[in-house]
Each structure stands twice: as C-alpha cells, then as structure tokens.
Amino acid sequence: MAEAHQAVAFQFTVTPEGIDVRLSHQALTEIYLSGVRSWKKRLIRLKNSVITGVYPASPSSWLFVVIAILATMYTRSDPSMGLIAKIQEHLPVSQSMSSQCQALLSAVLFSTMLWLLLIFTMRLCLKQLLSYHRWIFEQHGKMSNTTKVWVALVRIFSGRKPLLYSYQGSLPNLPVPAIKDTVKRYLESVRSLMDDTQYERMTNLAAEFESSLGNRLQWYLKLKALWAANYVSDWWEEYVYLRGRSPIMVNSNYYGMDFLYVTPTPIQAARAGNSIHAFFLYRRKLNREEIKPSRIPGTVIPLCAAQCERIFSTTRTPGEETGKATRHVHTPHCMFNELSSFPEMFPRIPWAKARAEYFSSGVNKRSLDCIEKAAFFVTLDDDEQGMMGDDPAASLDCYAKSLLHGKCYDRWFDKSFSVVYYKNGKNGINAEHSWADAPVLSHLWEYTLATDCFQLGYNAEGHCKGEVDSSLPRPQKLNWEIAPEISQSLAVAQALADDVDFHVFAFRDFGKGKVKKCRVSPDAFIQMALQLAYYRDRRTFCLTYESSMTRLFREGRTETVRSCSNESCAFVQALEGGEAADVCRRLFRSASEKHQLLYRMAMTGGGIDRHLFCLYVVSKYLGVESPFLKEVLSEPWRLSTSQTAVQQMELFDMVNHPEYVSCGGGFGPVADDGYGVAYSVLGEDVINFHISCKHSCPDTDAHKFGAQIRKALHDLLQLLSPYQKEPTRTEKTRPEVKKDL
C-alpha cells in the first residue's frame, strides 16, 4: 500500500572474478508494464485535452470542414472570398511543391482557421446562453416562451457526449454585484435582528461605506473579475481555510455516513477491500474524464467540475502564516492506519513548527511523504459503530462523533479525505474542506457505496468475491520518532473533541412527498422549521447561514443564503403569538417564497456575503479600515445549516430497497454558542438530521434542539394541511435491518 521495497530490478555482488549482476526478469517485466500504463495514461490525457479543447465541436468535425471546402473548390466556387488565394500567395516558394499542392495546402489552412473560428463562436454562444439565469426565477412547472427557446439553443450548442471537463471553457465568470445592491440586501437581512438604534447606526455606517471607500474597493474587484476566472474562490480558499489557525478537526472537517439500516458485510477487511477497489474505479473514470458532467437536476445546465481535479492525492500542508493544498499526481497507493499513536494536527502554527523541526528529514520525513502522496487515507478502527444495541439513537450520536474526530490520534485530517472502517463492517468518511465542497465528495461517496454493494458484492460468508492475488506486495509499516511535545498536543485535541455535543436522527414521520403536496419547496419548509425551532429554543432570532453553490460559474464554490429574513421572523412571531391559521399560512407562504428568492439569488451571483468578504480582503491589501466591513465580517453565525443532496438517485432503488439509504453527513458547530445543522432529504418519506453544538455552552443542547425540530416539522405540516391525519407515533417503525452477506 505504501512504498513496496521487496521488488528490485537487479542485485549485484563483488566476487574475485569481478561484479556479478543478477537481473530479476519479473521485476523488469513489472517496470515495463508500469511504463506502458504510464504512457497509456498520458495518451488518454492528451486525447481528452484535445476533445475538451475543441468542445462543443469534435476533432472529426475538422475533417468534415476540410472536405466541404475542398468540394466547393472542385465546383469552381470560392467560399473563402479570395482568402485561399491570399494564403497561397504568402506560402514560401518551393520547387518541390506544385501550384496544385499549394492550392490544396492553402485550402486546408483556411479550413482549419474556419473550423477554429466556428469553435470559438460556438463557445462564445454557449457561454452567453449559460449566462442567462431568468429560468431559475420562473414559477415551478411554468416555463416562459423565452426560456423554452433558450433550452433548445443550449441543447444545440452543448454538443454530444461531453467529458467531465468539456464545459469548463464555456461557463460564465461570476459577476461582481453592484455595491448599492449588496448593501441594500445586507441591511434588509439584519433588520429583524437589530433594534431601531442598532439598525440606524448600521445604516449610517453602510451609507458612509457606499459613498466613499466602497467604490474604490469595488474598482479593484472588477479588475480582478476581468483577469481571474473567479473573483472569489482563490481568496475564499486562502483566507477562510488555509489561513485559519485553529485545529481543522471539528472546526473545519466534515463527515459522511454509511448506509443507515444495512451493513453489507460484518468483516472489516472485506468491506475495506471492496470499497477501496470502488474508490480506485472512480479515480480511473475521473482520470479518463468518463464521469458525466454534473448538472442542475432535471435540466441541461452544467456545473463547474474544477474541484474534481483535487479529490485524490491532495494534502493540506500547514504553514506558520498560511497553509497550502498540495496535489500529488501518479500516486497509486492509499495509506492505512491501524490505531497509530499520532495525535490530531493540533493548532496550525504549532503543527507547522513541529513539521519543520521534526518532519523535514529522516524516518519521519519518509513516512510523512508516503502519507501525503497517497491517494487517500484509510483507518481500520477497532470500535463498532452504526445504529445498533439497545439504544440505536445514542449509537448514531456516537457514530457521528467517531467520524468527526475519532480518538484524535487515529485519523489524518490533512488528507483530502480519510475513510474509516469499523470492526463490525460499518464505514464512513472524513473530509478536509479547503480543496472542495461537500457535493463533490458526496458524488464520490455515493458511487463508492453503490459499487461496493450492488456491483462488487460479497459471497455467502461475507468475503469479497474473486480470488486472492498472492503476487501483490505486502503493506509496509511506517515508522515514526515522536517527540514528547508532539504527544502532548493530544490533550488539546481531546478537549476539543470532548466538548462536541452531537445528535443524529432519521425523521421518518413524513418527508418531501407530503411537503410537496402542500405546494412548498422542501428546503424552504425545513429552513422555516429550523427558524421556528431556534426561536422556541432561545426565544430570539439569529443570523442564519445556509450553504448554496455557485457552480453555475467557472470555479464557483459556495455562497451564503441568509435564511433568517424579515418574512420568516414575521411568520414565527405570528405562529407563536397565536395568530389565526389563515394569517400564519399567508405569512409562511411569503417567508418560503422569500427564502426561495434568496437561494436563487445566491446561486446566480446575487449573494451578499462573498462580495462583502472580497471587499474586506481588498481593504486589507490596501491597508485601509472600514468600520462597516469590520462589523459585518465579525457577526457570528449561531445557526449554520447545510443540505446534503443525493445526486445519483439512479444508483439506489428507494422503492424496492429503502433500507439502502445513507444517513448523510454533518459538521461541527461554527459558533461556540450556536448550532450546526446538516440535513438530507431521502426519497419521499425520510429526512435525516445531524445537529452539533458545544457542551461548554449552557444555552445549547443538541438533543433538546432536535426535539424542537421534530415538533416544528409537525406543526408546520399541520398548519399547511390541517385536514390531513397525522401519524399516531412520533417515529415510524424503521425498516427491518437486513444483511446481504
């Protein structure tokens, strides 16, 4: 798995007769085959580069254009309007080339230039088409004639059989919003969170910023937007992630769970073998760009695939001021860890200093290089996890905490992702956040779970199918020399892990099926339930973060949806104040529509927070202070939320095999006195929730907040469909737990 040193190409000894060289034919054969594989990969990448480079046309279309131009020449017509003759005049004089050959060469050159011009035009047209976002604001189920024409044109200019990165050159750049629009939307988003005095003060700060410093900062952003593919993403990665100085365990990394009700095999090694095989099958498809480009569900609109390049063999390297995300190419191995005694990557500055002092040479450097160049990291955990035992609910909470931080010394949190395999066959994944966002890793995780169970499978005893290849090199043990001060950092990590309070539950009383019958977006419904639950829990409102993607644009990552709006606050206050049901329903509709509008604005480049963040970065570069930006960027997100959407439902059969559902994933709390809430909507009848907070805060309790969410969901459904019969039990009976061995 790590470097295999057993196979050597040759051995030599010194004898009285001279040097005796003994060649190993098996080793030379392996070297030859390795070279063949390497060249195949290069040729595949070259072919894909050509195909992607000329997309939406195809390389074969060049031949079609050449033949068409030559055919017109033989009919004595000149489609070039004299350009072919001009090219022929400027060709170098050659005695060996007849005038007919020169004419033929001129026609080929003209055809090639015409072909390239057509490709450029098609790409420009597709880019302009993909810049149209009015379709996303149209009412569900109703499409305007303009949008119908636009969809037809997108289909025409999108070409056929695109590779993973085919659309990258045609995606539009993220636009820079106008200062006045961002400031206006910001003030609207905080109105319900401030009293009159606070709001007046903030309004004055905003007006001063807009009329003076803001325009100067905006000019630099517009200049960057002209030059860079995305004016946000590189700074977001640098300043939000890589310059973060706190431990990334709990604070930044996130996790994903296995199937909720099914464990395909109880044998740890078999589960690891199958799913690791599936990971490398995905990587092969990724290297060949055979993975279909992601699209907005139900549409032809492509999403940016730039983050996919760093899924494998990427490591976050610490630095005293800033870290970096390093990708290593051509790394065929993965890294196993079986409960080593290496501590969590403690705060980044001490870790950077320790790395420079203790890991820059010798055995530590060799071992560290093996880990950092690995495709991904694997932990064989000696615990049992999952929904099990006499208290399945508590076991899920334990499972989440194990995936989030483990024992603080048995994960490698700097790797792009680490896979954990438990003693009872359950697994899970922990991901570093700087290199990409959750949907990218989720796509890989869905593929791996499905391939592991439904394609590779297990025999009757629970072992992997197939025969053992005894010629494979055995794993190599990595050795470490751990200084005492490094071991002491375990106490820091343990304190951070012990402070995390987690509650995970599957809400099965109803799902998006009943919500849609109420003519409400499931995401808006859940967000309104979270607002209601938080208000009941704390008797106040708070700044709420919901993650939205901006991958409609080149190199897009995320934007913030400020889910706590004036409309949502008005609805919650009316419901809690005992207003009439009709009034509450009307206010709920208004709040959910506003939430949908905010979400769509965020997706299409009209968000607030990334623009303000970049303005703040520019102000720091210029060495100027902005009281407005400083206050905006220091506001805490006491409720941080994110939906984990299933992207490849075709891989799972939710009708015949509803037990094969993942429980989704989660993350740690963003604020010390707040909640982190991740949720996933599965099928028509299941919503999974992952709630985190800190024990050290007396005002937060993950289980208490979970109970408030359950109650809020029921209350909203009863409000919107008062005549529907509610379930008599608070939880439906879960499906029978099965094992396919």
List descriptors.
741 residues; alpha/beta; Fumarase C, Chain B, domain 1; 5 domains; 6-stranded mixed sheet; 16 strands; globular; disordered C terminus; Carnitine O-palmitoyltransferase 1, liver isoform-like; lipid metabolism
SSE inventory with pairings:
Blueprint: E1 10-15, E2 18-23, H1 25-54, H2 59-74, H3 83-89, H4 99-130, H5 145-157, H6 179-190, H7 196-211, H8 213-227, H9 233-242, E3 254-257, H10 268-287, E4 314-317, E5 324-327, E6 335-337, H11 348-358, H12 362-372, E7 377-380, H13 392-405, E8 417-421, E9 427-431, H14 438-456, H15 484-487, H16 489-498, E10 500-507, H17 512-517, H18 522-538, E11 544-549, E12 558-562, H19 566-576, H20 581-603, H21 609-622, H22 627-633, E13 639-643, E14 665-667, E15 675-682, E16 686-694, H23 702-720
Parallel strand pairs: 6-7, 7-8, 11-13, 13-15
Antiparallel strand pairs: 1-2, 3-9, 3-14, 4-5, 8-9, 10-16, 11-12, 15-16
Helix pairs in contact: 2-4, 3-4, 4-5, 6-7, 8-21, 10-14, 18-20, 18-23, 19-20, 21-22
